[in-house]
Amino acid sequence: NNILENYLNIFHTDYLNNILIYNYFQIKYIKYIRLVFIKLYKIGFFIKILKYKFFMSETKFLDWII
């Protein structure tokens, strides 16, 4: 939470090891994805890209459809 706290509830929310990035506009969405990935990389976190889903209009998060 500390790493991305400046952006919490602006374009992302997280819970345990899940990060949900959202924006209505595709250009901003891509920008936010890059920002989060760069922040995670800088602190030594690596992601498994195959576990991610991009450009979803809705998804299940913490047993809620959003």
TrEMBL record:
Entry's transmembrane regions: none
InterPro entries noted in UniProt: DNA/RNA_pol_sf, Rev_trsase/Diguanyl_cyclase
Q: Where is the signal peptide?
A: none
Name used for this protein in its record:
Reverse transcriptase domain-containing protein
Organism name: Aspergillus carbonarius (strain ITEM 5010)
